[in-house]
Prior knowledge:
- There is one protein chain.
- The protein is an alpha+beta fold.
- The chain folds into six domains: about 120 residues, no CATH class; about 150 residues, Sandwich (Immunoglobulin-like), CATH 2.60.40.1220; about 190 residues, Immunoglobulin-like, CATH 2.60.40; about 120 residues, Alpha-Beta Plaits; about 80 residues, Sandwich (Immunoglobulin-like), CATH 2.60.40; about 140 residues, no CATH class.
- The strands form 19 sheets. Strands 16-23-18-19-20 form a five-stranded antiparallel sheet, with no helix packed on it. A four-stranded antiparallel sheet has the order 3-5-11-10, with no helix packed on it. It has a four-stranded mixed sheet with strand order 4-13-12-9, with no helix packed on it.
- It is globular.
- About 40% of the residues are buried.
Amino acid sequence: MKGWPRVKMSKKIKAIILIIGFFGIFMAANFVLAADFGVNEVNNGLGGSLSSTDPRILVGRIIQIALSFLGAIALVIIMYAGFLWMTSNGDEEKVNKAKDILKNAIIGLVIILASWAIATFIISRLAGAMDGGGGGNFFDNSRGNFSSAGAGAIGACSVESVYPTDGQNDVPRNTSVMITFKEELKLDSICINAAGDSCTCNPDTCNKINPKNIRLYKTDSGDACSDSSCPNPNINITDILVSVPSGNKTLVLMPASPLGSANGNTNYTVKFTDQVKRLDNSSVFKGCGNNYLAWTFIVSNVFDLTPPLVVRGSAFPLPDNEKDIFQETTPAKAAQGLLTVNSCPNIYSAATVISVTPSSATVVLDYHGQLSNFKVSVPAEAPNKAQLFGSNNNLLGIVDFDDQGQAIFPNYLTFQVSDHPAGSFWEIVIKPEQLADTLVIDNTSYTFSATAENNNIKVPTNCNPIVQATNIEAKLSGQPEIEVARNGNRVVLEARVAGESGNNISVSTTNNSALNVQPLSGGTDQQKLDRPRGEKDRPMNSVIQLNFNEPVNPMTVAGTAAEVAKYIRVVNAELSSPAGTACNQNSQCRSYKCENSVCVGDYVGGKFVISNGYRTVEFISDQECGVNGCGEKIYCLPANSHLAVEAMAANLKICNSDADCAAFNPFKACALTPLGYKTCQNLESKNYPTANFIQLDGIVDAAINSFDGDRSTYSDGPLGFYNENDQVAQGNDKKDKYTWSFYINDQIMLVPPQITSVLPAQGQSGINLADPVIVNFNTLMMNSTLATGKILVNNGTSTIEHKLMNLRSASPSPLGYWVLNDNIDIEPLDGEPDLTIARIFHTPFAESMTFAAQVGSGVKDIYQNCYKPSVGPGCAATPEAPSCCFGAAVSQLGVDGNCQ
């Protein structure tokens, strides 16, 4: 009997099988890899966090997970069919079986892909309907949340920035919402009066938002308003007061009552409809991808009671107490410092028990903190338990008594008593642990001790500052970096090598009251050149910059110098004359402006601009002094001037009795302050930080906390000026206003900025959908120009368009973006920021799509020099080819001003 005939597979058939197999693998793998199925997020949700998850998100994730498993199964089946066919060895039955399996697997894969497309479409439409129309939502893989398509108006269209930003977490309940547009708004499309009629915004009679055009609501409850009307009453819309800073481009929305709840996080959506108008009465969103603005953020369950402050070392120019000297020859000089012994430093001693009352109990300490009083009590309802309280009656722990009558409080103490009836109470007084003080010279640390061995400095048994100074001199005499000499209770420190390097020898101690340290300074190299004294005097075309640690309300810090002079101003730092006083030269006037022998004004003219997520305030003078490389005007501060910036804290909210403070725990006492009025205070006589929102008279943050000029972490109000130039000579009256001074020379800096690196790099793939685009500059930048969109510059008879910082996608998509940046001090660290890092944040990137980032010639450095001719990574542009496009220098851009 003959067997089945052997069928030899041709090379052509094998090639077809391989192509089909690879195609199936590619399609399935691409489908699986192209989607973020949110497995971890769903697992976390199943672990107990589903209560805070949008049901749309949960359904979308479940569908994606199910389809991912089906796709993986289809992939395995295709691979199996290919394997079966390739190993059939001419067996026609196996070949036919493999064909059937492959055919069915491909049909299944097509069905899976079609299901994925249909499900995605339906979910997006449902999400759009729940979002109130206008384009719907899109899924944010990075944050596990739906992000409104209306956020695409930020950056790419008419909105410059918002606070809180889209998707921001942990927003305090007492926050304001701030929005800055790129053009002036028609204010009667924003505000209504008490009767609900549209009106031009003003703080007295027209200060509420029009809920038909602007609304803030809980995202999970949805927007109850249509495009033309809102239900009355609308229980899911927050009552909001609105303020409009100078320029009519920024809105400050202050909820009339706190957002969120004390029980957990709450999602909120802010929405601006197409009825918000420009001055020409057209929609401010006309031409945007979606004809509205909407974004979301998450409000926590806490209030912000921390006032804003100026980040130390972030101001530009830095505080400077001496004007530079020009063309002076200076010999090399060794840096010197001084160590004054006022008393003997501490040596180590363990914590000890001083008394236990009643004395029936014994206490063994295991405590390394600084509390000196404890209380142990036995609850009336639980005689077998012991409670431990600290000095302020704060509960530290509850434990059970064991069979030996011991109550062990870990990291505090062991309490033992033979009898502990319910209601019993003991007071324990201890002497806290005392750590040994240290003295650090450069990289060598010395410890104060009862002995002088190793790196210990002996402390005399009976303290004598002169003996202690002698012991310090003896120990430091072998120090390689410094020479020492004692004079009574003072130890003079001098760098062994003369020159500026000696200024970098650090000296510090943990006990500044016992050892007064004056760090090594004054070392100079021998040279003949312009010699800075203090900080370097800055060019006339400098922009004054002030950086806060958090967003501040723009109402009192943005506008012309005249509009905000009560709250922030630039003035002559010398003893100078006010407006109307006779003068002979500009330097005699507080305004640096002497005209017709009379001082004009009480402050330097110009404008204040807020940027960088409302964290940076910049002052630009109004005195023209030239043009930059882009033909744009440069403005200069007074030449050879000594200037000061004065920033005001706001007055605090006034109270009349303790009843007014009952809701402000722990600031529950209404007490008289040095300000001359009563305000709410805590047990430490610290003030409730909130200012009066209706009558703002100083700098406040987004939660309306008054400015903390002296960085004490509490708001003291406008008592006096904390002077950054003289941080030592500060009294209780030197707070909470803030000032610093610096010198301006008669030079103009005209060197353009450069880009040193960008991330993601040109052509890079596999980018996280939420990562910002990072641009590193080689110098400090003018933060208000690190913005989105473009500016128009009049150059002769023509108007030139200069781009700023932008993101573009390969196809239309609801991409919103905004710019935040930081000034960085690089090596060698000297406390002065050297360069700026800009970050373009954005709503989630779409998968499998190409994006282009742009830095245009509208971007300027701190001296108003534009970014042109452009220099970037791998691209050295020239005046003939001034633009860098995708890593290459080009001479021309497209008609839209973008790289072709």
